[in-house]
Amino acid sequence: MADVSKGTVSKALNNKPGIGDETRQRILNIVEEMGYRPDSSAKALSNRKTSNIGLIIPHEAGQSLDNAYWPVLVSSITEEAAENGYNLMLFTPRREGALDEMYDSLISSNKTDGLIIGSELLDRKQIDLLEESDIPFILLGKHPEADHHFVDIDNAFAARSMTEYLLNRGYRKIALLTGPGSYYYNRMRLDAYKEAMENRNLPVLHVEADEYDSPSVTRALDRIYSSGPRPDAIFAGAGGDFLYTILEKLRELPEAEQPEGICVFDDDRSLDFIGPGLTAVRQPVQELGRAAAKGILYLIENPELKQIRRIFKTTIIERGSCPVLPNKDNQI
Amino acid sequence: MADVSKGTVSKALNNKPGIGDETRQRILNIVEEMGYRPDSSAKALSNRKTSNIGLIIPHEAGQSLDNAYWPVLVSSITEEAAENGYNLMLFTPRREGALDEMYDSLISSNKTDGLIIGSELLDRKQIDLLEESDIPFILLGKHPEADHHFVDIDNAFAARSMTEYLLNRGYRKIALLTGPGSYYYNRMRLDAYKEAMENRNLPVLHVEADEYDSPSVTRALDRIYSSGPRPDAIFAGAGGDFLYTILEKLRELPEAEQPEGICVFDDDRSLDFIGPGLTAVRQPVQELGRAAAKGILYLIENPELKQIRRIFKTTIIERGSCPVLPNKDNQI
DNA sequence: TTGTACGCGTTATCAC
DNA sequence: GTGATAACGCGTACAA
Asked: Do A145 and A290 fall into the same domain?
């Protein structure tokens, strides 16, 4: 304290009224000179507000976060948060300990003011726990058993539009290869695909990988080829390692067994250079991240009941991997 | 307080001595029942320790963080931190405001106990500022003007070994395309490449993109082709968008101008599927992240002077994009 | 072994 | 407009 009391300093720093312009200026000058910054822990303790938001990305032990989806999401959330004076704390719990870690180190210890949570691996009990607590949170991806705030893409639309895209190009035996049905979005995508196929009385060729790891995906692909007709198109339900495993196995197949078309969920610039270019469903990940961040920031300041639900449309990025099939008489 | 005083509770929670086994158990039971957790802000204020570490990734405005490098780094750091009871705060300042944001919201406000900092865009002044403060930090990538704790890969080794790999396969006109020289690692890689080429009296074909964005990379590539001999191999100094821009431009070239070989810094599984597979320098990013996290955790508990410097070797992931040149008489 | 009192650095509430 | 004073919730000496 160069001249005044701490109460006054506090007012000066926070632009609070009840202080003379001249006094404020003098205080701010001194603060500037001595490079003083308020201690954030003390501030948090006093304000009951940390100015942190948490991003929780639960993931399987083997699954890596290095596909095109998470990095973009993380950076867009970080930026949106930063623009509003919030910092981002990142949590990547393994599936097994997800609950414990979340509950212990987050919910009741007030490390963050709000949470953005990847909902894929959450079960009902965990959501209950969260809702009982007073910490606001928003889900990344709608949860089947919870009616909570969320942002998501329109999974049904995405799968349907890609399926119909393939149908319009003459494909009839379209195989959908998804991750585990325990991930809700996989179920939604499957349903939409199924409906599109059944509407045209076409065979539903779906296999589900038990896990996202390489052996499971390989087994799933084997199942397609060991039962049922040879598919003329393969729709890969996820990018990253999931896709790469499929591509790897596919090129071990004899020429005659190769599907004529292939497409994938999750766009990425590298797909431009894979074969003739890989047609993909593009999720607006950046917008999703921004919306999630905006959502949680809003919830922090308005803990009212109104439900936030933002659903984004996807687009198809057309490349060369799904040529129009030559026998056009097949077409509808 | 169900029975005792708070002092006693504190001891029970922190496994401090000076308390009876029976009392401790009783307290812990009650704590468990009522789901009590210590408030982390209060704890931090009292302990002068937040149990947070910060990861600062400065980046250009246009540059995305979605290459193979950052995601892996972030998740490995997060995990290592979590295993030691620390949480990760992520900062991705744009170049322009880097200093301000760092200084204001981090260094003197005690939001984190330590910092891991991507050194690429740091200037001397910022490092001075950091060193004056009492917050421990470790650099991700050695800084040319600072002799501070760091973890890094052996950039010289990496560039040299890849250059020699190409030479051994018969390439003679090897063009190195790097990002801006203001990034120290680009200079180190260039020097090693240059040395390898000059040792054999071969022409140094190096161009530098002013920025990492697409127009700059395109201009750089043009410069290679407009001056000097047509390269027989192109060594791309970075993956992600940098690489993709190069690939994009390259395939617009007539067949006769195509380089026979191409390779790249930064490995990624998608490279398996680009053309015949793209040979790449693999950085042990996971290990790097772990080491950085371990390093900063060590520094937090031992603010001694001993300098931490960990340098990791890279490996070459050989794929099909650099075939041995047919005119073997070229070889050494 | 247990309880008490104080300090951490800030904001908020009041008298002045 | 300004300055004491009491919280905020926790550790931790030190006294009981």
From this structure: yes
Q: Is residue A211 part of a domain?
A: yes
Domain count of the fold of chain B: 3
Q: Is residue B326 part of a domain?
A: no
Total H helices, total E strands in chain A: 11, 12
For residue B103, the domain's CATH number is 3.40.50.2300
Asked if pLDDT for residue A267 goes beyond 70, the answer is yes
What is the reported pTM?
0.93
Q: Is it the case that residue B153 has pLDDT exceeding 60?
A: yes
Q: Which nucleotides in chain D lie less than 7 Å from some protein C-beta?
A: 1-5, 7-14
The answer on pLDDT for B260 being more than 50 is yes
Q: Is the CB of A43 under 7 A from strand C?
A: yes
Q: Does one domain contain both B134 and B176?
A: no
Nearest to B232 by CA among B165, B166, B298: B166
What confidence score (pLDDT) does residue A25 get? 84
Domain-embedded: residue A322: no
B291 sits in the region (left: phi over 0; alpha: psi -120 to 50; else beta) called alpha
Q: Residue B69's closest chain A neighbor by CA? A: A66
Which residue among B108, B269, B274 places its CB closest to the CB of A37? B108
Cβ of A39 and B109 within 8 Å?
A: yes
What's phi and psi for A118, nearest 5 deg? -65, 120
CA distance A119 to A151: 10
Confidence of residue A76 (pLDDT cuts 50, 70, 90): very high
Q: Do B269 and B175 share a domain, yes or no?
A: yes
In angstroms, the separation between the Cα of residue B15 and the nearest Cα of chain A is 17
A47 CB-to-strand C distance under 7 Å: yes
Summarize the confidence of residues B47-70 as an average pLDDT. 82
Judged by CB atoms closer than 8 Å, whether chains meet at A66 and B79 is answered as no
**Domain carrying residue B273:** 155-283
